Amino acid sequence: MPPKRAARIESRDAQPSQISRSPSHNSRAVTPVKEENQDVADGPVDQPLSPAVQVPDAVDARHDQPISILSAPVYQHLLAQYYRNGEYSDLEVVSNGVVLSVHRIVVCSESPVLKDKCSNLGRDQRLELHQYDIETLDRVLDFCYRRTYSDGEYPDNTAPFPLTMTAGDVNDALEKPLVILNDIEDTEWMGLDPQCEVFDEEGQDGREDEEDNGYLPSPCEIDHTCDDFESLDEEELPANMPSESQGEEEPPQPPYAISLFANFNVYIAAKELQIPALQLLARLRFTHSLRSHWARFADLPTLIEQVYLRTDSSEPLRALISQMVAAEYGKEYSVASKDGIRAVMARNGEFARDVLDTTLRMRTKWADSE
């Protein structure tokens, strides 16, 4: 009998060890771990954010697929303040005597070119980029933090749609050719946000037919609050707009600066620094502004020269401009200065050739459609 008692005591002593290793006997100890692992696999559980990391109202919380390494918009919002005040900065970017304090982890994660340049810096930690003017460089660096930038025409308090695109989507969009479309027909702009749709159930835009030389309404990324086009005083006009009327039928001027040069400079910088999302955003802004303000932009000849001087023959912006000239040049007051366009053609043979080729293709297409 004593041996049985001893065996029973030994079995009782061994029981806790066996239970601690058996999930079927310790559901309270194992289940929480299982649920936690399941949450990690299925995604985080929706919980209120701490007041310290609340997403601001201006940021669209649906932007959950950014192409940036700074994946959450809340991080971009928190980091943006450090770009402006320079706190915790560990890198100085210099352009023509102006120093911008930035954070290496932010700018290098956005641009492989800047990453390579920073890897070869000395102890002074100063990166010189004198090939860019300070306004353009500031917009590029601002985009690295906020995923948008200020250009004087488009609002920068909301996240632009490239934020929701993957890297592959951005590259595919950059490879697509640019064509002449007005804002109502342009699916590249109007189809990206359901709130921007202006078509009724029958597919009409609900507005009366407008003349070809009428002002094209801006898409919903543009602020409409002041687009009443009332007459402005001469001192209120931006520098790139004529203060005197050039004819009775001159199109009205918008009450904001036309950002064609600013966005073109950002586009070139983003292309050289290999920041595809910024390149796409700048190109979309440039394209829409060119379509909308083609007839009223006084510095159009200079812009055309800059595009052909700073890009190669495969540049989509070249094709867009040649299409615009071929399609709109013969229309009344559709070009700010026909003499300026002719002068550019005389100086730049590539531009003249592109316009001629585009005109012949368009005439062939029109003849085939008749």
Automatic annotation (TrEMBL):
Q: Which SUPFAM superfamilies does the record cross-reference, listed alphabetically?
A: POZ domain
Q: Which PANTHER family match?
A: BTB DOMAIN-CONTAINING PROTEIN-RELATED, BTB_POZ DOMAIN PROTEIN
Please report the name of this protein according to its UniProt entry: BTB domain-containing protein
Residue stretches of biased makeup (Polar residues): 14-29
In its UniProt entry, the species of origin is given as Phomopsis amygdali
Which residue intervals define the domain BTB in the entry? 89-153
Q: Which InterPro entries match?
A: BTB/POZ_dom, SKP1/BTB/POZ_sf
Renumbered residue ranges of the record's region Disordered: 1-51, 235-254
**Taxonomic classification, please?**
Eukaryota, Fungi, Dikarya, Ascomycota, Pezizomycotina
Domain of life, per lineage: Eukaryota
